[in-house]
Amino acid sequence: MTATTPVLDVRGVVKKFGDNYVLRRLDLAVHKDEVVVLLGASGSGKSTLLRTANLLERVDDGQIFLSGEDITDPRVKVDAVRARIGVVFQHFNLFPHLRVLDNVTLAARKVHGWDAARAEQRGMELLARIGLADKARDYPDRLSGGQQQRVAIVRAVATNPELLLLDEITSALDPVLVGEVLDLVGELKELGSTVLMATHEIGFARRVADRVVFLQHGVIVEQGPPAQVIDNPREKATQDFLARVLH
């Protein structure tokens, strides 16, 4: 991998379910330390794009490269690829039978082979950073939705993944809790994480994204810096979407 090799490189990807094309020859590159935000209405292909990047869905055509490696090659070891990617979905997906610290350290211990002491030290450092060190021995049902989602994000970044995929991580939260979760994503940006995320939080995208990508019907209609795509969109489809969302 060279300095110019994208962390994620999506080339001509097609994904369909039956006769319904969800991604239509889509091209997208995400570079190291970049935060790319996907915007678009429900059904535009945002979640499917994230799921193909993590091999939860197999593409029907095209290729996806992770740090230069073709991960759509059928010979690729799927679990090895997923171990290099952190993923957080809109529903926290914490294991209810495991305490918070065990949730955070599970991948480090079981997938990456870290010893318990190293994993727990890293887990406690991260929990302390988000103000939840005192919840380490609690079960997830003792936490608020915002706290659970922050734990899910910390779990995803605990092993320093090459790429972090975030799929509508605030949509299941009470509006009061949205800010604390998005603040954490902002901190991850400052720490140099490479992030591809789908969100409806326009203000967050304007503040944190390096690039905003607007999708419609599985096609990238417009992309660029937030100041251009959000504040001065060139395409009518983008203008119409933002008018609905913002007003």
UniProtKB/TrEMBL annotation:
GO annotations of cellular component type: plasma membrane
Keywords, sorted A to Z: Amino-acid transport, ATP-binding, Cell membrane, Membrane, Nucleotide-binding, Transport
Ranges that cross the membrane: none
Chief location of this protein within or outside the cell: membrane
Domain of life of the source: Bacteria
Cell compartments where the protein resides: Cell membrane
Keyword ATP-binding carried by entry: yes
Bilayer topology term: Peripheral membrane protein
Chain ranges of the ABC transporter domain: 8-242
Entry's Gene Ontology molecular function annotations: ABC-type amino acid transporter activity; ATP binding; ATP hydrolysis activity
UniProt similarity note: Belongs to the ABC transporter superfamily.
PANTHER family: AMINO ACID IMPORT ATP-BINDING PROTEIN, GLUTAMATE_ASPARTATE IMPORT ATP-BINDING PROTEIN GLTL
UniProt protein name: Amino acid ABC transporter ATP-binding protein (PAAT family)
